[in-house]
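Q: what sequence does this backbone want?
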């Protein structure tokens, strides 16, 4: 059983073992308790510098990391593609060398290219956190999703008894990939569902069930995770129309009647209301959307804290 964090970086869920995942979840529990107090401050990163390098646009993830680092006492610098030298042709390697020269202690990287965090981590002494790389992985999102499931379903509930249905654009989703790895390691049963063009049968090789009929899996689901269509990562249309997608894979009030009364409805955001989910369900008691946002702050505090215990 892992009792201490030993990795310099957090790049993927795929490379973690179950004990490491559970260590992050348990650490986040403590930080969530801290966030409920009037003074939401810890000092584990005092005098450390955290650089948020978001080459791909983001609002909630970037803000969450900024707040997490601030609550831990770090100095925070945020850089995006619009205000950085990337617009002038600077390479990721050049940027990494500049950050190294400036003695950055942590770099939080979001990039449109899969593998960019691994590339930069190999060239920096700083701790590197992958905040999403292309359609590859988004490890802290999977961790906060697992934390939310454990919290809402009950800490005594066995992962082996939990069935998670992930519906939508699996092919282009880094969130889906990281969740598949995390849930598989924890022992949950996972079903991926969507159009054949977005959920090809090859995903079954990851140890999950692949389905193309949303209605057929609703009654057995303990958790339904809905994903938006990643239009920005697609070079062609993968289904005839939004209307057809909604009719087959949108979670509406009629479909909800077939679900378990206490089913959790999850979404990493941003939500396309009326497409992957009806507004009434997104705002209803089964929804965990705002819980996920709140838990994301605790998870990112936990990740930065644990990385900070490892010597650079």
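A:
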């Amino acid at each position: 059983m892992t009792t201490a964090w030993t990795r310099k970086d957090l790049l993927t869920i795929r490379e973690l073992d179950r004990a490491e995942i559970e260590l992050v979840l348990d650490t986040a529990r403590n930080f969530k308790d801290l966030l409920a107090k009037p003074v939401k401050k810890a000092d584990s990163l005092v005098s450390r510098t955290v650089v948020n390098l978001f080459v791909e646009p983001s609002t909630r993830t970037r803000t969450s990391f900024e707040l997490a680092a601030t609550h831990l006492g770090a100095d925070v610098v945020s850089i995006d593609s619009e205000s950085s030298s990337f617009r002038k042709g600077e390479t990721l390697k050049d940027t990494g060398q500049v950050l190294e020269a400036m003695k950055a202690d942590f770099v939080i990287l979001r990039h449109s290219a899969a593998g960019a965090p691994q590339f930069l981590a190999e060239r920096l002494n700083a701790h590197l956190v992958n905040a999403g790389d292309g359609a590859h992985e988004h490890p802290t999102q999977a961790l906060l999703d697992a934390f939310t499931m454990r919290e809402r379903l009950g800490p005594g509930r066995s992962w082996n008894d939990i069935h998670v249905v992930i519906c939508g654009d699996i092919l282009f989703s880094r969130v889906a990939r990281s969740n598949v790895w995390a849930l598989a390691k924890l022992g949950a049963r996972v079903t991926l569902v969507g159009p054949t063009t977005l959920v090809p049968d090859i995903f079954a090789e990851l140890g999950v069930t692949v389905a193309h009929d949303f209605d057929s899996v609703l009654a057995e689901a303990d958790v339904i995770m809905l994903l938006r269509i990643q239009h920005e990562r697609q070079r062609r249309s993968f289904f005839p129309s939004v209307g057809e997608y909604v009719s087959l894979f949108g979670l509406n009030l009629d479909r909800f009647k077939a679900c378990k009364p206490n089913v959790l409805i999850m979404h990493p955001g941003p939500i396309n209301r009326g497409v992957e989910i009806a507004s009434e369900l997104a705002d209803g008691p089964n929804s965990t959307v705002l819980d996920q946002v709140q838990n994301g702050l605790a998870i990112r505090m936990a990740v930065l804290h644990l990385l900070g215990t490892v010597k650079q």
